[in-house]
Amino acid sequence: MRSKRRGGPGADGDAAPVAPEMKQFALELVEGVREKLSLLDEKISKTSTNWRIDRMSRIDRNVLRLGAYELEFRPDVPKKVALNEAVELGKKYGTEESSSFINGLLDKLAQGIDKP
Q1: Is the dihedral angle over the CA atoms 113, 43, 77, 90 positive or is it negative?
Q2: How far is CA 72 from the centre of its chain?
Q3: Cα separation of 11 and 116, whole Å?
Q4: Which element (helix H / strand E) includes 109?
Q5: What three-state secondary structure class fits 77?
Q6: pLDDT (tens digit, 9 = 90+) per residue, 9-68?
Q7: In Å, what is the CA distance from 55 to each residue of 43, 45, 112?
Q8: Structure pTM?
Q9: pLDDT by residue (tens digit) across 2-11?
Q10: Rounded distance, CA 16 to CA 31, Å?
Q11: Which end of the chain is more exposed for a tag (fewer CB within 10 A), N or C?
C-alpha cells in the first residue's frame, strides 16, 4: 500500500497571485488533457507494466496525464522540463514514492518521443 500524501493545498502557506499567462497555460493543459484523455491513458497503460491506470493514485494518475500531454502534444515544452515539473508535482502532492514512480514511467514514455 502506498503511504500518505506529503503536501497539498495549504502545505506551503498562502498562494501568490498567478499571472494571466500562467493561468492560460494551465487552462490549455487541462483542456488538452481532457481532449486527449483516452489516448493519454492508453499510452500510460502500455508504458506501465506493473500498475493498471485505475489502480494508480489519483494524484499520480493525473500528474502522469499532464506530463504525458506535455511530452506528446506541447512542442514548446522540452522533455526535461516536462519530466522535472511532473516529478516536482509528485513530490509536492503525492506520496513518498510518487516522484520516482512518475519519473520512471514518464522517462520510459519520453524515450519514444522525438523532441529535445
Answers
A1: negative
A2: 12
A3: 33
A4: helix 98-110
A5: coil
A6: 544 556 788 899 999 999 999 999 999 999 999 999 999 988 899 999 999 999 999 999
A7: 15, 11, 24
A8: 0.84
A9: 445 455 554 4
A10: 23
A11: N
